[in-house]
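Note to self: keep these together.
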Amino acid sequence: MDQQPSSHEDYVRKVLEANRNTPGTCGNLRRPDRLLAVQLYQRGVPLLTVENALVLAAVRRLIRPADAPPLTTVRSLAYFLPGIEEVLEMEVGEEYLQYARQKLQRLRPS
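Structure:
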């Protein structure tokens, strides 16, 4: 986990990189994704909050019943906005978020 980036450009780059590397995303970045990352920076949303939201969403998408219909690929950073808001409002300990990261590593498709 990185500390809060010192520059606007660094923050945007790290948010977009985290989004691109999240399981279940298409890996492509679009202009609206970049604009949303700028808005998150302007709102003062910590990078760690964004990263935690991406991890929680990815784990939730991967932990599904085997007979559930497949989910479509996430094509936009905007998909994660509700999760970002949830993480901003939640009082979850770092232990749980570390657990979610470990779970994601185990579940991550090869």
